[in-house]
Amino acid sequence: MAKKNTIISEKSCSVKEVLDIIGGKWAMPIIYILSKGKLRFKEIERSIEGINTRMLVKELKNMESNDIVTREVFATVPPTVEYALTKKGKDLLPSIKSLYKWGQDYIA
User: Fold this and answer.
1) Order of strands across the sheet with 80-85?
2) Is residue 84 within 8 Å of residue 69, measured between CB atoms?
3) Which residue has the higher pLDDT, 23 or 76?
4) Domain coordinates of the chain in residue numbers?
5) Fold topology of 16-103
6) CB of 41 within 8 A of CB of 54?
7) pLDDT by residue (tens digit) across 81-106?
8) pTM exceeds 0.85
Protein backbone atom coordinates (compact mmCIF):
# COMPACT_ATOMS: atom_id res chain seq x y z
CA MET A 1 0.00 0.00 0.00
CA ALA A 2 1.41 3.37 -1.01
CA LYS A 3 2.08 5.90 1.73
CA LYS A 4 0.24 9.16 1.20
CA ASN A 5 2.36 12.27 1.62
CA THR A 6 0.66 15.22 3.24
CA ILE A 7 1.90 18.65 2.26
CA ILE A 8 1.16 21.45 4.67
CA SER A 9 1.56 24.88 3.20
CA GLU A 10 2.37 27.86 5.35
CA LYS A 11 -0.76 29.60 4.02
CA SER A 12 -3.11 26.87 5.26
CA CYS A 13 -1.42 26.08 8.55
CA SER A 14 -3.35 27.46 11.50
CA VAL A 15 -0.73 26.04 13.89
CA LYS A 16 1.76 28.60 12.60
CA GLU A 17 -0.77 31.37 13.17
CA VAL A 18 -1.40 30.14 16.72
CA LEU A 19 2.31 30.05 17.43
CA ASP A 20 2.65 33.60 16.10
CA ILE A 21 0.12 34.66 18.74
CA ILE A 22 1.14 32.55 21.74
CA GLY A 23 4.55 31.29 20.68
CA GLY A 24 6.53 33.80 22.70
CA LYS A 25 8.53 32.40 25.60
CA TRP A 26 6.42 34.27 28.13
CA ALA A 27 2.94 34.14 26.57
CA MET A 28 1.78 30.88 28.14
CA PRO A 29 2.98 31.76 31.66
CA ILE A 30 1.21 35.12 31.36
CA ILE A 31 -2.01 33.46 30.22
CA TYR A 32 -1.76 30.94 33.05
CA ILE A 33 -1.21 33.69 35.66
CA LEU A 34 -4.16 35.69 34.29
CA SER A 35 -6.39 32.61 34.53
CA LYS A 36 -6.68 33.51 38.23
CA GLY A 37 -8.45 36.77 37.36
CA LYS A 38 -7.67 40.44 36.79
CA LEU A 39 -4.16 41.44 37.80
CA ARG A 40 -2.16 44.63 37.81
CA PHE A 41 1.03 44.89 35.77
CA LYS A 42 3.36 44.56 38.79
CA GLU A 43 1.41 41.57 40.10
CA ILE A 44 1.96 39.79 36.80
CA GLU A 45 5.63 40.76 36.75
CA ARG A 46 6.19 39.47 40.30
CA SER A 47 4.37 36.21 39.53
CA ILE A 48 6.61 35.21 36.62
CA GLU A 49 10.17 34.49 37.64
CA GLY A 50 12.80 35.67 35.17
CA ILE A 51 10.69 38.02 33.06
CA ASN A 52 11.83 41.61 32.69
CA THR A 53 9.61 44.66 32.35
CA ARG A 54 10.40 45.20 28.67
CA MET A 55 9.46 41.63 27.70
CA LEU A 56 6.29 41.70 29.76
CA VAL A 57 5.18 44.93 28.07
CA LYS A 58 5.96 43.44 24.64
CA GLU A 59 4.06 40.20 25.30
CA LEU A 60 1.05 41.98 26.80
CA LYS A 61 0.85 44.37 23.83
CA ASN A 62 1.02 41.42 21.42
CA MET A 63 -1.68 39.53 23.31
CA GLU A 64 -3.84 42.65 23.53
CA SER A 65 -3.58 43.22 19.77
CA ASN A 66 -4.59 39.58 19.21
CA ASP A 67 -7.56 39.88 21.59
CA ILE A 68 -6.14 37.45 24.16
CA VAL A 69 -6.04 39.98 27.01
CA THR A 70 -7.80 43.22 27.82
CA ARG A 71 -6.08 46.25 29.30
CA GLU A 72 -8.05 48.57 31.55
CA VAL A 73 -6.52 51.87 32.68
CA PHE A 74 -7.81 53.66 35.77
CA ALA A 75 -7.37 57.41 36.25
CA THR A 76 -5.38 57.31 39.47
CA VAL A 77 -2.03 58.77 40.46
CA PRO A 78 0.05 56.87 39.49
CA PRO A 79 -2.12 55.29 36.78
CA THR A 80 -3.41 51.82 37.61
CA VAL A 81 -3.56 49.25 34.81
CA GLU A 82 -5.31 45.89 35.08
CA TYR A 83 -5.08 43.00 32.65
CA ALA A 84 -7.57 40.16 32.21
CA LEU A 85 -8.13 37.31 29.79
CA THR A 86 -10.76 37.71 27.10
CA LYS A 87 -13.04 34.83 26.15
CA LYS A 88 -10.56 34.01 23.40
CA GLY A 89 -7.76 33.93 26.00
CA LYS A 90 -9.78 31.76 28.40
CA ASP A 91 -10.44 29.30 25.57
CA LEU A 92 -6.65 28.72 25.38
CA LEU A 93 -6.47 27.44 28.97
CA PRO A 94 -7.38 23.78 28.31
CA SER A 95 -4.67 23.58 25.62
CA ILE A 96 -2.08 25.18 27.89
CA LYS A 97 -2.99 22.82 30.72
CA SER A 98 -2.67 19.86 28.33
CA LEU A 99 0.80 21.02 27.28
CA TYR A 100 1.75 21.42 30.94
CA LYS A 101 0.58 17.87 31.70
CA TRP A 102 2.46 16.52 28.70
CA GLY A 103 5.60 18.26 29.98
CA GLN A 104 5.11 16.75 33.43
CA ASP A 105 4.72 13.28 31.91
CA TYR A 106 7.61 13.36 29.43
CA ILE A 107 10.10 16.06 30.45
CA ALA A 108 11.80 15.68 33.77
Assistant:
1) 39-40, 80-85, 69-74
2) yes
3) 76
4) 16-103
5) Arc Repressor Mutant, subunit A (1.10.10)
6) no
7) 999 999 999 999 998 889 889 989 99
8) no
